[in-house]
Amino acid sequence: MKQRHFRLAGLAAAALLAVSAAHADTLSVGNSSNVYVAEDGKLATSLAQSSTGFHTPTLWGVQNLTTGTSFLAYCIEQGQSAVAASQTYTASAYSAPSGVQELYDRFYDTSLKTQQGAVAFQLALWELTGGSTVSSFSFVQVTGAKDLATSWLGTVAADNDPFAQKYTLTQWSNGAYQDVLQAVPVPEPETYALMLAGLGAIGLIARRRKASR
Questions:
Q1: Gap between the Cα atoms of 30 and 86, Å rounded
Q2: What are the start-end ranges of the E strands in 30-68?
Q3: Are 61 and 4 in contact (CB under 8 A)?
Q4: Alpha-carbon span 151 to 210, nearest angstrom
Q5: Ramachandran region, residue 36 (left: φ > 0; alpha: ψ -120 to 50; beta: rest)
Q6: pLDDT tens column, 45-70
Q7: How far apart are CA 53 and CA 84, in angstroms?
Q8: CB 112 within 8 A of CB 59
Q9: Are 60 and 180 in contact (CB under 8 A)?
Q10: What b/e sequence results for 168-196 when a residue is b if at least 16 CB atoms lie within 10 Å of its CB, and e otherwise?
Q11: Which of 88, 131, 144, 145 might form a disulfide with 119, Cβ 3.0–4.6 angstroms?
């Protein structure tokens, strides 16, 4: 069983290193088959657009055509459009402006549960990343979304109860289209312990092999 734990830990460490290293993949963000909002606790296809046609406050479904995987993401470039066709995006660790990390740690889970939460989270994120303020969005039709976003921003600004980090943030960047953020759960402490044990075991094996030559 120990050997299995060491193997899993090594794989987990390798996966984390792969996420943190900058690399380019082909993504499809926001076409008609994978634009989603959270609604009644489940993800549902949505073609809702804003009055401008592309500033849609929603939770995007992203297809990674390089790896054959998919993930959910919010936009951090309000002034650029999404694209239905596949495009090359570069992934890198996101250096979050003040408040963004706490917004994710406190409210990202909640945002996945309702349409109101998804729209509220996107509005709050846009304000924190230099987009328009929540109050300036006149086209938002989801009842209570703006009020919820304002409430969340108030909690983040007050910062009276610092929150433990629950996510690392990966930025997917494209020069012509919306950059998006992918939230990757931070491993639990026991997972870190297994990872360290796995790395230690790998180092021990390497030393033994070197000594036996």
A1: 10
A2: 35-39, 42-45, 59-64
A3: no
A4: 59
A5: beta
A6: 443 444 344 456 778 888 899 999 98
A7: 13
A8: yes
A9: yes
A10: bbbbbbbeebbbbbbbeeebeeebeebbe
A11: 145
